[in-house]
Write a structure and sequence with these properties.
Elements: E1 13-16, H1 21-37, E2 49-50, H2 66-82, E3 90-104, E4 118-125, E5 133-136, H3 152-156, E6 170-173, E7 179-184, E8 188-191, E9 197-211
Antiparallel strand pairs: 1-7, 2-3, 3-9, 4-7, 4-9, 5-6, 5-8
This protein binds fe (ii) ion.
Length: 232
């Protein structure tokens, strides 16, 4: 009998944040007004509005979002359980957080957040037909011929009988309104192209994970309180 082992996984967290309807309405209203009052100068068409590039990158400072971030914290801690981490030895910080708003065929091209450790997307407003979150595999451990999984001509010539999780370089996450998806910030991600969005609103954040105690410890960022800023 033969067997396949799947090693070195990418583990993505999915959970639900059930906020009172009026809290959600307030949040939606707030985000729409941010978009309306922000500078649109740099925004090329077909790109979704993202608060971080329009002066709204610290959404967690807004009192109307307080309950939401309390809930996010609980989900991030649960995600850490999956990796058997002792969270009592770690400090977690939201470093920045922002909303995104997509209308018609606006989308977000694949990118990562390399200055951060963990990121999430929470869907405050999403209809079933709105564009999905797309995750792109950068490591491709199984791609034993370069570009085997991504080549358009290999695809056109039907070299693969079927696409499965074992031979795909990207996947679409089937998230619904109220879902939160948490992933390592280094994961390449974006949103589906050419999909008609109807005021799709998501909230994202970048999270840093630091050591609570740095004694005899390498590789984790030391506690923020111990840092010294340049006098310059
Ligand atoms: Fe992102």
């Amino acid at each position: 009998m033969s067997k396949i082992y799947n090693f070195f996984p990418l583990s993505i967290y999915r959970g639900k944040i059930e906020l009172p309807e009026n809290t959600k309405k307030e949040m939606v209203k707030e985000i729409i007004s941010m978009k309306e009052t922000s500078d649109q100068g740099l925004k090329p068409s077909q790109n979704a509005w993202t608060g971080d590039t329009h002066g709204y990158e610290y959404l967690f400072q807004n009192k109307k979002f307080r309950t939401f971030y309390e809930e996010v914290e609980k989900h991030v801690i649960k995600y850490m359980d999956h990796f058997e981490l002792d969270v009592s030895k770690l400090d977690f910080y939201f470093q920045r957080s922002w909303a995104t708003l997509s209308n018609s065929k606006e989308h977000i091209s694949p990118h990562d957040h390399s200055q951060s450790n963990l990121s999430f997307a929470y869907y405050l407003k999403k209809q079933p037909g709105d564009s999905k979150l797309v995750l792109v595999d950068k490591s491709k451990h199984n791609e034993f011929i370069p570009q085997l999984f991504t080549s358009p001509s290999i695809n056109r010539n039907k070299i693969f009988k079927k696409r499965t999780l074992n031979n795909t370089p990207r996947i679409n996450i089937e998230a619904e309104e109220d879902d939160i998806i948490i992933f390592p910030s280094k994961t390449l991600h974006g949103t589906e192209k050419n999909i008609n969005n109807n005021d799709r609103i998501s909230i994202s954040a970048d999270i840093s994970v630091l050591a609570k105690e740095s004694k005899n410890l390498e590789h984790l960022t030391p506690p923020f309180a111990e840092w010294k800023k340049f006098n310059k």
